[in-house]
Every structure is written in structure tokens, then in C-alpha cells.
Specification:
The complex is a heterodimer of chains A (about 200) and B (about 140). Chain A has about 200 residues and is mainly α. Chain A folds into two domains: about 100 residues, Orthogonal Bundle (Rna Polymerase Sigma Factor, Chain: A); about 100 residues, Winged helix-like DNA-binding domain superfamily/Winged helix DNA-binding domain (Arc Repressor Mutant, subunit A, Orthogonal Bundle), CATH 1.10.10. Chain A is about 70% helix and about 0% strand. Chain A has eight helices and no strands. Chain A starts with 7 loop residues before the first helix and ends with a helix. Chain B is an all-alpha fold and about 140 residues long. Chain B has eight helices and no strands. The termini of chain B are far apart. In chain B, about 10% of the residues are buried. The chains are: A mainly alpha (about 200), B mainly alpha (about 140).
Chain lengths: ~200, ~140
Amino acid sequence: MSLEDPDIEDIRLLAGGDAAAASRLVLRHSDRLMAVAYRMTGARDAAEDIVQEAFIRMMRQAAKWEEGKALFSTWLHRVTVNLCYDRLRKASTRYEQAAGDDLPEEAADEPAADAMLEGRERGLAVREALDRLPERQKMAIVLCHYEDLSNQEAAEAMDISVEALESLLARARRSMRKDMKLAAALNDELADDMAE
Amino acid sequence: MSDGKKMNTYTDRNPEDRELAAAIARDRADDPAPRLSEAAMARIMAEVPQASAAATVQPGGSSVRPGSGRNFGLSAIAGLFRPPVWQAFAIAGVAGLVAGGILPAATLAESDVTPEQEFAIYLQSDDAFATLLEEDL
């Protein structure tokens, strides 16, 4: 891993109280951290709380940051990952929109409704399968598949070895495939019952 | 994180996982993660001056923010031994000695109290009462 940290100049400036440097760091990293926190918690408010806390810790850490030990972005991801775990342990937050509850009744009459519904069900099946995973497996999927981090980067963010991450990913994929197949089979069964 | 080439190869080798990866990609596209709101951004930026104050007050030390409450006890005790504090204590102590001992003695020495007045003061004091009690016994 290259130890040339693209954030280092801004961290030095932030340590001296430079608000512009803080702003640049927040803008540079907030989208990715929000994405991780949102996928993990499923709620915007919870994700914002987590990201806010991560950046506040960044402010405190800047003055005593040891250059060359790790990339600042890796550290920031690790803080976010741990805050997500804390949050999930405190309260099992779920995606705000439960399956189908918020779909308007008249949608079925619209021409593209079937396609939309199918897409939504497919998305929900993925999300529900994701939500059913244990937190570390879920984090591995979120970092590698939703946020496109490499295995190396995800392992560093989770503070585990690459081998451990690959093991988590393999188990997570297996569980998700199984859950999604089950959900599809149940949907087919329901559709058959409705047709009869 | 780094912009280097993504090193995941597992899903490239497994058709079933390619399907799963595609489903996840669709889900990600259908439900993009929200961005940090302006309000949250403002709350974060409000922490900047406090962070710089912490960096100024405690260079190389713990990252405790002023008034944050963390490690307050230890900081307070350690603060007692910082030079300005013990110097103030020492000055206050010397001032107390001067006020409590030297000044009253000097005042008495220079006073114009007559022996009769001194005896009258003695009679009103607890010493005189104790002496009378002893004599009664």
C-alpha cells in the first residue's frame, strides 16, 4: 500500500484549525461514508448521525494524526464501520420502506406498473437478503459490492485480514442467494395461487 | 480510498455470484444513497473551532476537547500542579501568613490600649470565666 496520503495536507491544515481544509475533507469523503452508513442502517437519519460523528472524530484526531501509518480515508472508513456496528447493536434499524407498504393502490392500473413492481420486488429481495445477514457479513457485502472497494481496502476498513474478508463474503453471498431463491419461489407460489 | 484497480475476482469466476452482483448493482441504482444534508454539514463544521482549540491547548497530548467532560478529573488534578496554579497558591499562602500573624502583632504593639482597658477586655473573655470556675471548684 502506498503511504502517500492524498489527504495529508488537509489534515495538517485542519490540525491548525483551518476550516477550509475541514470542509474539503468532508466534501471528499462524505458521499462514500454516507453510502456505507445508509446501506448498513437503512435509514437516512441514522446514516447522518454516524457520518457526523465520524467527522467530529476526524476533527479531534487531526492534531495527533501519525503520518505514514495508514491512509486517512481507511481510518475514516474504519471509524464509520465501527459506528455502524454500534448503531446496529443498539437498535436493529430497518429500511424505512417495508415491502409494498408504500406502493399506491392504483399503480396496478398503469401500463408500466408490472415492470416497476417486478423491479421493486427484485430490489427488495436483495435488500431483505442483505438485511438478514449478520453485521460483519453485511458490512463485507456493502463495502465490496455496493461501494466497490477492493478486498484489500474493505479488509483494512473492517480491520480484518483479506482471508477473513473473503470468508465473510463467501458466506454472505451463499446466504443471500439462498434467501433470494426462497423469496422468488414464494412469490411464484403466491402468483400461482392468485391465478387459480 | 485508493483509485487503484479493483482486486475482487471472486464474482468474475462464479456465474451465480455474477447474478447476485448484478442484482446488487440494480438495487444500488434504484435506491442511491442520500447525500449528507446541509444541516449535518453545518453541525460538522461547527466542530472545527473546538477541534483547533483542543489542538492548541494540548499539543501532543490527549484529544480531549475543552468542556467535553472526558478525563475531566485527571485534567483537573494535573492542572493543580501546573506552574501558574501552584505559584498562585504559594502567593496566597504567604499573604495569609502576613495577614494572620505579622500584621496583628504589629497592630497590638503599636496600639494605645491602657492596662485598665486590657483588664476589662480580659474580664469579658473566656479565660476570665474559666479562671473563676477553677477558683469556685
